[in-house]
Amino acid sequence: MAKIGYARVSTTDQDLSIQQDRLKREGCDLVRSEMISGASRAGRSELATIIEFLRPGDELMVTRIDRLGRDTRDVLNIVHECDERGAFVTILDPHVSTRGEMGRVVMTVLGMVAQMERRFIKERQREGIERAKGNRVYKGGKRRIDYELVKRLSDDGQNPTEIARAIGCSRMQVYRILSAIGANP
């Protein structure tokens, strides 16, 4: 019976070490981590790997429920998948485990709170953007990929896979950029 920790942050300017240290102190034999939004399960390969390898009696442990997900359905699906494998889910803050029925009820409520918090965050962000636009100080998000470089590499005959590898992004981003600038991949 293994304790497997899962740590997640949404952005590169956030620190995983606090979660990782706490999970290790709680006795996790292994801690997997990733930097990706918790708004959905899409792209969360470390979490998928943990769930795939859970055995009966194992325990998936996270520091807070929002590390597991910010959508009630996602959280409940994760708990269900762990249940199907005979494994448990434990949240450290507040301490809740699926080892008992009451823990499942509390986890459902916490999942709903995390989802509501996500909505509040997005609403505050939207209000801030509107206020900045009204004050004419909003510049929009920073462009992270050089569109001209993508076009130049495409014009030089490189395919989207090669371009993505060369500039360090996903192939889908390359397709989107080429579509936005009117170039055919």
UniProtKB/TrEMBL annotation:
Family matches, as SMART domains: Resolvase
Gene Ontology MF, one: DNA strand exchange activity
Gene Ontology process terms (BP): DNA integration
Domain Resolvase/invertase-type recombinase catalytic: 2-136
PANTHER family assigned to the protein according to its UniProt record, in alphabetical order: DNA-INVERTASE FROM LAMBDOID PROPHAGE, RESOLVASE HOMOLOG YNEB
Family, as annotated: Belongs to the site-specific recombinase resolvase family.
Protein name: Site-specific DNA recombinase
Species for this entry: Citreimonas salinaria
